[in-house]
Structure formats: C-alpha cells, structure tokens
Amino acid sequence: MAAPAVALKRIDKRFAAVHANRAVDLTVAAGTVHGIVGENGAGKSTLMSILYGFYQADSGAIEVDGKEVRIHGSRDAIALGIGMVHQHFMLVETFSALDNILLGAEPGWRLAAARTRVRGELETLMRETGLVVQLDSLVEELPVGERQRLEILKALYRGARILILDEPTAVLTPQETDALFVTLRQLRERGTTILLITHKLKEIVALCDAVTVMRAGAVVLDCKIGTTSVDALAEAMVGRRVQIGRGEAAVAAAVPGEELLAAHGLQWRDALGVTRLHDVSLSLRAGEIVGIAGVSGNGQSELLDVLSGMLAPDAGELVVGRARFAPHRWLDPAHARRLGIAHVPEDRHRRGLVLPFPAWESGVLGYHDLPRYGRRGWMDQATMQADTAAMMERYDVRPRDPRIRSSKFSGGNQQKLVLAREAQPEPKVLLVGQPTRGVDIGAIEFIHGRLRAMRDAGGAVLVVSSELDEILALADRVIVMGGGRVTGDLPIDACAEATLGRMMGGAAHEVAPEATPA
Amino acid sequence: MSQPLEMPRWLDLVVLPIFNLALALFVCGIVVLIVGQDPGQVLALLIKGAFGSRIGLSYTLYYATTFVFTGLAVAVAFHGGLFNIGGEGQAMLGGIGTALAALALADHLPGWIVLPAMVLAAALFGMAWAAVPAALQAYRGSHVVITTIMFNFIGSALLSYLLVNVLKEPGNMTVESRSFGPGAHVPGMHELLGVFGIEWPRSPLNLSVLLAAFSAVAVYLLIWRSRPGYTLRAVGHAPEAARYAGIRPARQVIFSMSLSGALAGLVGINEVAGVHGRLLLDYVVGAGFAGIAVSLIGRNHPVGIVLAALLFGALYQGGAELAFEIPGFSRDMVFTLQGLIVLFSGAMAQVAAPTLARVWLALRRRRLAAAEAAHG
In whole angstroms, what is the distance from residue B274 CA to residue B270 CA? Predict the structure, then answer.
C-alpha cells in the first residue's frame, strides 16, 4: 500500500488557555477526498493552519508522502505540494484572473512573455481538470463560483497535489456547489488528494471517501464514508443527538392571524441601474414563518433591506399596522424598531455587531437610546451589561461574559447574540437573513427552535436563506424569488424541492441581461 | 492571516511602549555616537533639561499642554473613523477666535467674563474650521484627509491676511496684533501657585494646563461613558452596523469632526492668550501635526495621549536645552531624535509586539514546566 499523502501524528497546539488541538492523529490516503468536520472552534482550522505552515505545532509530527517534514510557512507547504483555498478568497479584485495566478509566481520580469507562457500552461491545466475560468476577466467581474475555481486553479498551477479547501461551499449557490463537486471528483480522478473542511454533513456524505470528526480539539470519529451516516456524524460532532428539520414541531400547524406587515409593488434599482426588485409584494401575518427561497443574488437581500428601512425603494408601498410608507418618506431603521420590526441582518460581521466592541456594547446596538439604558447622555453600563448577560444566559451564548470582544465569539455564538438582541423587545415582525450561515449544527437546532417559538408567540417571522433545506424545515409558507421578482408563493404542503427549484431557476437568469446603463 | 498572538493587556499597554521607547533611544544613541557625542551625556542632559529644574518642568508642561489639545483632537476624530489632518489649521483658527474675543472684550470687561469667552471663541472657531470639511465629506463625499490639509493652507492664509490687513497696529513693523487688554490675561502657573504661597519661577506655563487636563477627562467620559460617544465609536468601527442601528453616519461625521476641531482650537488659549497676549503668525508651528504623532503613540486614549504629550513636551524642552548646552548639537539633531521616537513608538509601535509575545510565552512555558517539575 502506498504511503498516505498526509499523516499528522499526535499534533498538539495550545493558544494561551485554549487547547486547540489535543494529540490529533489524521491520516489521509493519497488520491482521496477526506472530510474534516466539527463545530466552530473544534480545532479543524487550527489543524489545517498547522499543515499549511501558519502555525507551528507545540508537539507532534507531520508526514507528507511518508516522509517526515517540517513546515515553517506557506512557502514550505507549497514546495511540498500542499495548496490551500481559503474561505475568504485571496484574490486581487482589480487584476485579471490570469494576473492573479501570475502574482507571486512570475517566471521572469517581462510580464507579457510570462503571460503568454502561463496562459498556455493554464489552458492545458484547465482542459485536464475541467476548471474553466475566463482568464482575461477582472476578478471583480467573476461570479463567486468562478473565483473559487480560480483559487483552485492557482493552487494547482503552483503544483499542489494536496488541496485543502476551507468551507468551500459557504459562499456558493446550490448549483455552484454541484459544479464544484463535479470538479473535485475530477481532480480526485487525476490523483489529487483533497482535504475538505466543512460543517455541512450532507456534502461530506455526498463527496468524501473518508471523514474525521473533531470536537473540542480532539478527534472523536475517524471512518470510511460507507460506514457512517449524516445522523451519526452529527451526533459525533455535537456529542448528543440533534434534531433538525420539521419533526414534531410541524404538527402544530400555524394558524396565521392578522396581517402585520404588507408590501406592495416594491421596486428598486441599484447604482448601476440594474433593477434588483421588480414589483415585489408580500404580506406577513401573525403566527407564521414565511421563507424566502431563491438562489442568492436574486433580490432577497435587497428585499430585507427595504423592509427593515436600510434602503428606500424607488416605488411601492409598505403598510405596518396603521403606518403607511411611500418611497420618498420611507421608514428608517430606528423607526422600524419603534414599529416593532426587528432585523437579524445577513451580514452579522458588518452589520449585526460592531466587532471591536465588547459583547455588551454590541448587545444594545440599535437599542442604545432606550430610556432604561441611561439618563440623559450617559450610558448606564451596569444595566447594559446585565441585560446582555441575561440575553447570553437565555440564548446560551458562550463564553458567557459580556465584557469579551464581539469578534472573539464563534460565528454561532455571534449569531445567537444578535438574535437574542433582536428578539429581546418581542417584536411583532422579525426579519431574519441567513439565520444559520456559518453556524454549527448544535446552534442551528437552537436558532430554529427560537424562531418557531417566536412564531408560536404570535410574531411574524420572515426568513431569507440560501439553504433550501432550512426554508423547508422552518417555513409555513414559501415565497420564491428569481430575478428580483416573486416567482412563487405557496404553502409548505405544496412545496416539493423540484417545484421550488424550477421556480427559483425559472427567472433566475433574467437579472444580468436586464442591466441597463443608468 | 496568521493571527496576532494573544498577549496579556499589561504586556501590550506597559511593556511594549517602554520597549519601543528604549529601542528608539538606543537608535538615537547610535546616531549621537556617529556625530561624535556621548549618548549618555546627551540623554542625561535631555532629561535634566526637561525635568531637572522647576523652570524646565514648567516649559515641558507648557509644551505638553498644546500637544494634549491637538492629540485629543486627532483621537476624537479617529474614534469616529476619521483622520483629521487639519489640527494645524483648526489651531490657527482657534487662535484667531481667541484674539478676536480678547480684542473685543478685554479692554473693558473683567477676566472672569473674558476668559470663558475666549475659550468659547477658540473652540467655536476651531469647530467651524473642521465642520466645513466634515460637511463636505458627509454630504458631498470629498474626503476629510484631503480637505483638512487644504484647510490648513487656507487657515494659514487667512491668519496672514487678518494680521497684515486688519489686526496689525499702524506703524508697527512686526506682523502682530496689538496686545490684549488686561481682562484677557491668563494667569500663569507661578501666579496661581503664588496664591497658595508656593513659590514657582516665572514661565509660559499657565492655567491652560488645567484646561488640557480637564479636556482629557472630558474626552474619556464622552467617548466611553456617554451615548454620543457610543454612536461616535459605532460609526467609526462599523458604519454599516451603525446605519443598521438607526444612527445617521452623516451627522456623526459632523459631530466628531466638530468636536475634534474644537479641541484643536483650544491651542489658541494656551499659546495666544496664555503666552503671547497678542495674535501673531506662527504660534502653532507644527503642533497640529505633532498631535497626530501624539495620538498615535498614545493609542488614541486620553491617558496615553497625556503621557505622549509629556514625552513630546520633554523632547521639545530637553532638546532646546541640548542645542543650547552642547555646541555642534543643532536643532536639526533634536528633530532627528524626535523623528526616531515617532518612528519607533508611533509608526512601528506594533512591530515588536509578536516578538515580545513570543518571549513572554516562552518564559511562561518555562515557568509552567518548572512548576510541574516541582510538583512531580
């Protein structure tokens, strides 16, 4: 039997008080796809960073192709044939795809000659691997899926035989994910070894040959894919049984009550003159969860922004209770909150939290002007901290210390904090964007439970998610968006994945051609 | 991507700045050696000049007062996410405000009316000079870094124009206004301490030093304890999150820049009213720009800014002493030393951080190992 492509032996790594990796053993056979799963903070990223040379292990050994090696930096890793594709792409957006590959690997000082040569090599590589990228387009013009292919191509061009992919599907649409998997299978055929970090278990089962599950810095399960299942992996990851999906929660079918929010004929064009929202109407009733399904980039984000007051539309009307809003006097976020519309934004890093703030300062964001938080201009820090501590308690945010910086919490805990804050004033309408993006499986279960509880308490919840599974698990009614329009509005009983897929796809590609110069 | 190593706060806030300063002094020592002087002697003279006598200390504090104002000005804007390079111009305008208030009121009215009026005028003039670039950024999208630099030149031209064409006494050859009336007299520290029976030599150090200390405390309270400070920081750190929270970033830009300009304007009280007693041309002399360095070294925190301002004050005063005491050790040499300190403590403040953190980790690990060995 050939030596394994990568063997990590008893890798141990501590960061101050955190024991990130505890005697981790990992063996990856050559030419296989090996999944590494675990909740946020389980130590998978640390482990890969050690393999790629960002960190040095405190103890333990690394073997590549059976030979013990020392990796002091990414240069060493690349020299050994290890390539890494990060979750956040490392590309220069204003360079062409070709120049991005050249960058740092220019074979000479004459750029024109180098371009010609590299282009030839890349075309061969693209033919062999099926990784097609438009080499002359600027990166900023490429869709996300193509940027990712570019990253992979870049790694391969530098001679990567072992490819580490960190959460590759987090930013992809379902179609792009499928295309990525086709590519990865093709690469495996060619003998490339792939390490896939993810917390989407379905992907692991669909693609991998073997899987390693990590929890709290240690390996808890290591097996061939044929001998396991999604449920078994989930249990290993979290350490207990988890229930995601409708389950018995669906039994109590929602009985929608009065209309809490209604939008008519919303229309919005972006700065480039592209119509992003096209005559969108919807209504939210008390006691229902409405899911917005659609391939991301089809107007869902803009819809959330318009409904929450972040964005004023060009046309349309919004009715919230007795208040009516026309485009020239649209509601602003502060007014929306006063009307009982809470908003869990899609991008919690840029919007939901102020990352350098301690948790308690992020915990009052948007509500900092409430009378209970201080008299006149002063902040009542004690009350703010106590309230945040109470929220953290209720929503199980860990670590449970309101004085820790917002940026230090894991994605799931950040999301729970934002949700706790927005749910705190018991809003009539809760707008939620991507409730579980980048959130681990234990927290997903919790967040879904909270959203259902808010519905049961008589609130209206609007969920935008790029995960169809999530919509199907949560919603009582599904609105499908494509090309900035509502292409379907149907109760959950009438939803079959295929129907929704058709509705999503039906108008999905209308967005780009519709572009007209402003 | 490689994350900064975790290190305890004391290491970051105490050991690192001291280390940086030591490094800067070390390099200064080499430079001093190259020009043929004895580093030890130079350092001793510098410290003695700045802190060795009551008069030296007074001068150090007097310089520091101005740097506290301009340093705080930069810091307030910085917390609001803005880089105010216009401290120079705003300080000039503060001086003009001070002078106009003094010239208008000080001949007839008593100090207890004129002094507050001057402070108010200095703050308002500085504020106005910062508010224009702020409004241009908030509503028209022109960047404050560019506009505040331009406003420095406009401010300088305005000052010259006013002095030459409006405020200069007829027949006077020097470009300066007439002396302020008695009501505009800012009590010197020697007079103040004299009231309490403490004898103190005559120096430019005046009541403004207390205003500076008060401003530092006020800035701290405003930025970290008040709701306006909260919104200001929210906009500075995450404008999108602030908008999401219902804060209007455009207003915040104007607010933080105005406050910043007001602080810079207070330089006028220390220099124009406190020392010269008349308006002249070059009372700011780079203090506005030094404020950027002071704020940078002081990590934009009032406590740090006060310490950094003292350091700068000591360098100014000690440097002047040096140039005086050692023949061949010119002002330019002193500027070189200041430049090196800004370089190591400000611009490169974080360069040594990873190394220090690693040393600390290694030491701790050894201590832990020793402790374990002792147990086992």
Answer: 5
Smallest CA–CA separation between A493 and chain B, in Å?
Answer: 35
Q: How many residues does chain A have?
A: 518
Distance, CA of B114 to CA of B106 (rounded, Å): 6
Q: Do B237 and A54 touch (CB under 8 A)?
A: no
Per-residue b/e over B92-106, b at no fewer than 16 CB within 10 Å? bbbbbbbbbbbbebb
Does B230 contact chain A (CB < 8 Å)? yes
Tell me the two tokens of residue A412.
């799931």
Instruction: Decide if B29 is inside a domain.
Output: no
CA dist., res. A174 & res. A156, Å (int): 24
Write out the E strands in A32-152. Answer: 33-38, 59-64, 67-69, 82-85
- Note whether B95 and B122 are within 8 A (CB): yes
Number of domains chain B contains? 1
CA distances (Å), origin A512, targets A94, A141, A225:
21, 12, 40
Candidates B1, B225, B237; nearest CB to A378: B225
Cα distance between residue A59 and residue A41, in whole Å: 20
Bridge-based pairing of strands A59-64 and A6-15 is: antiparallel
Which range of residues forms the domain containing residue B180?
66-309
**pLDDT tier at B1, thresholds 50, 70, 90:** very low
Residues ≥6 apart with Cβ < 8 Å to A256: A285, A286, A287, A288, A476, A477
Domain contains B265: yes
pLDDT (0 to 100) of residue B4: 43
**Nearest partner of A370 among A379, A361, A362, judged by Cα:** A379
Three-state SS for B58-105 is HHHHHHHHHHHHHHHHHHHHHHCCCCCCCHHHHHHHHHHHHHHHHHHH
- Is the bond preceding A399 in cis, omega lying within 30 degrees of 0? yes
Q: Which residues in chain A are closer than 8 Å to B242, comparing Cβ atoms?
A: 354
Positions of chain A with pLDDT under 50:
249, 251, 507-518
Q: What is the pTM of this model?
A: 0.80
Residue A97: left (phi > 0), alpha (psi -120 to 50), or beta? alpha
- Residue B224: closest C-alpha in chain A: A379
Token pair recorded at residue B260: 């910043």
With respect to CATH, is domain A6-238 assigned 3.40.50.300?
yes
Retrieve residue B309's tokens: 């301002």
Q: Which chain A residue lies closest to B222 (C-alpha atoms)?
A: A378
ipTM: 0.84
**B positions 246-285 inside 8 Å of A (CB):** 246
Within chain A, which residue ranges are assigned CATH 3.40.50.300? Answer: 6-238, 256-340+430-518
Task: Write the pLDDT tens digit of every residue in A70-123.
Answer: 988 888 999 999 999 887 788 898 999 999 988 877 777 788 888 888 899 999
- Evaluate whether A260 touches A322 at the Cβ level (below 8 Å): no
Write out chain A residues lying below 8 Å of B243, CB-based: 310, 333, 351
For position A341, what pLDDT does the model report?
95
What gap in Å lies between CA B312 and CA B63, rounded to an integer?
A: 8
Q: Please list every residue in chain B whose beta carbon sits closer than 8 Å to the beta carbon of residue A354.
A: 233-234, 237-238, 241-242
The domain over range A256-340+430-518 is classified in CATH as 2.30.42.10: no
> Residue B366 domain-assigned?
no
Is B215 a domain residue?
Answer: yes
